[in-house]
Amino acid sequence: MRRAAREDHWLLHHLHGRLANLEGDTAEARRRYQRAVAEVESLRGTVRPALWRAALMEDRIAPYRALVRLLLDQGDIEAAWRIARTAKARTFVESLTVPGIGSMLATANPEGLENLPASRHPNPDRPRNVRVARGDPQSGMEAFSAVGPASSDRLRALLRNDERLIDFFLDGREVTAFVLGRNGLVARTLRRDESVEAPAARWPGRPEAGGAAVTAAWRRAMARIGSALFEPLAADLAGARHLILVPEGALHGVPFAAVEVRGERIVDRFRLSILPAAEALLSRERRATGAGALVMGDPASGGARLPAADREARTIGALAIGARVLTGQAASEAAFRALAPGADRIHVAAHGRIDRIAPTRTHLALAADGEGDGRLEAGEVAEMDLAASLVVLSGCGTGIDGGLARGDAPADERAGLPRAFLQAGVGTVVASLWEMDDAAAAVLVPRLYTALRSLSPAAALADLQRDLAAGRIRGEDGTPLDHPYYWAGLLAWGAGFAAPPMQTAD
Questions:
Q1: DSSP result, 370-383
Q2: What pLDDT is attached to residue 219?
Q3: What are 471-493's pLDDT values in tens digits?
Q4: The dihedral sign for the CA sequence 94, 99, 105, 108
Q5: Which end of the chain is more exposed for a tag (fewer CB within 10 A), N or C?
Q6: H or E stretch covering 353
């Protein structure tokens, strides 16, 4: 009975908060909503499997949304954003490497969560420099509960002058966009266009003549999403060249590069990065420690062979410094586990297999051997320790992640390959939201590595997409690869590592 009473306590506070808000007592409403959030967070912290957390949050997201709305109405944007981030992707945030966690503990501001239980407030006696959520789930929960979301000042310091971080928070038919730049934080309330959920927004069709109607519907969806979510942010994005987007719910899977604002594709003006949570920006507090490149192509996985993937791997191996190229039977799961942890760049050209029911089992199809079944699953990748500054997954649907409860459950508890590689310590992951043509990929993907000689992964990908969309890249048969099928599904996940130190002459 005591457990049931505790589980219902959040609801009582939430209902009292709604009543106080209706009566115009916003101070009492805020206090009650904070208590409701604190109760849910207390329950949430005792649940370790992400699947259970996702289920728990399905009917407990309401106080977070109510508190965010109230804080925004009161003009307290910093506190509102903190609550919005508390609501989302907690398991992912717990899994991150958090450098200098001691300073975070010392400066964490519980504003907006004043009534959290004592265990959820900063404690200077907790261990410092915790590497969270590898083999020990408790270490992750303790680190998160000690500090909550990273402070906006800490995140702001990691942004460059031409960057804007846009963190989307969904609330019914509205979307709040928290826009962070070097000069501060703003919040904009946007309308949630139905095109975001529409299947037409997820697939541009193929370049064959029979796909023209599908492509036309997709383009209309891209224009509607741009009008709803990005056009109202025009003033906030002035001077920006790099957008760092944090989607939520149905916004996952949107091919943002192709979204149009007043007839102009976003990628034509910006380079883009996708983060599972704003705290993924903390990767910029680390420097790359890997060396060389691991390149795998056309693994003997038991499925249809990919002859162009073999050529792709060998071409990239010739472009990358210190590359180890493995194809066929040599491109095995055991070889990946042995060689990937020390590599600075990892490239896999292979079949991607999506499991929409159990997204932690989404996997890359590598060659099986005596030490592995060849299924490199997202859940397995997330438990690895990787140092790569860049991972490129050149395979069908490798960029798809799924919700762990009812698809797009509240609280954004999700799993997929890009998220898993970021959890493992990777700086940036390039992957595709839909199928990749084997022969076309062998032509276009190596061009990404040519651009990487002088550009960041996000900038190199944006340049590649512009060249493809403009028809400047042709397939092996001379056909332009300008249809969005070839380029719009490619996205760069992650914020990358800190820039290397400047080289000076002796």
A1: TTB-SEEEHHHHTT
A2: 96
A3: 999 999 999 999 999 999 999 99
A4: negative
A5: C
A6: strand 352-353
- Count of beta carbons in the 10 Å neighbourhood of residue 503: 5
Query: CB–CB of 30/67 below 8 Å?
Result: yes
Return the H-helix or E-strand segment holding 420.
helix 417-423
Cα separation, 503 vs 40, whole angstroms? 50
Report the alpha-carbon distance of residue 376 to residue 373 in Å, rounded.
Answer: 8
Contact partners, residue 35, CB within 8 Å, separation at least 6: 10, 13, 115
The answer to whether the beta carbons of residues 346 and 293 sit under 8 Å apart is yes
The DSSP annotation for 428-443 comes to EEEEESS---HHHHHH
Q: How many CB atoms lie within 10 A of CB 466?
A: 16
Q: Which residues contact 183 (CB under 8 A, 6 or more apart)?
A: none
Give per-residue pLDDT as tens, 72-130.
999 999 999 999 999 988 888 888 744 443 333 333 343 444 444 333 333 333 222 22
- Cα separation of the two ends of the chain: 73
- What is the number of helices (H) and of strands (E) in the chain? 18, 18
Specify the DSSP element, H or E, that contains 451: helix 438-451
Taking residue 126's Cβ as centre, other Cβ atoms within 10 Å add up to: 15
Q: What pLDDT is recorded for position 501?
A: 52
Tokens describing residue 122: 């900063």
Q: What is the pLDDT of residues 236-283, one digit of tens each?
A: 999 999 999 999 988 999 999 999 999 999 999 999 999 999 999 999
Chain center to CA of 490? 13
**% helix, strand, coil for the chain, step of 5:** 45, 20, 40
Phi and psi at residue 242, in whole multiples of 5°?
-135, 120
- Residue 502, classified by CB atoms within 10 Å of its CB into exposed (0-12), middle (13-18) or buried (19+), is exposed
Question: What secondary structure letter does DSSP report for 59?
Answer: T
Question: How far, CA to CA in Å, does 186 sit from each of 75, 94, 179, 180?
Answer: 10, 26, 5, 7
- 363-365 and 352-353: which strand pairing? antiparallel
Dist CA 82 CA 148 (whole Å): 8
Q: What is the pTM of this model?
A: 0.89
Structure tokens at 62: 């309401």
Q: How far apart are CA 363 and CA 351, in angstroms?
A: 9
Backbone angles phi, psi at 324, to 5 degrees: -110, 115
Contact, 320 vs 447, CB < 8 A?
no
* C-alpha dist (Å) from residue 214 to 171, 202, 211, 253, 437: 29, 11, 5, 17, 18
Rounded-to-10 torsion of CA 84, 90, 94, 97: -60
Residue of 309, 404, 415, 323 lying closest to 366 (CA atoms): 309
SS3 39: helix
Q: What is the pLDDT of residue 134?
A: 32
Cα 30 from chain centroid (whole Å):
31
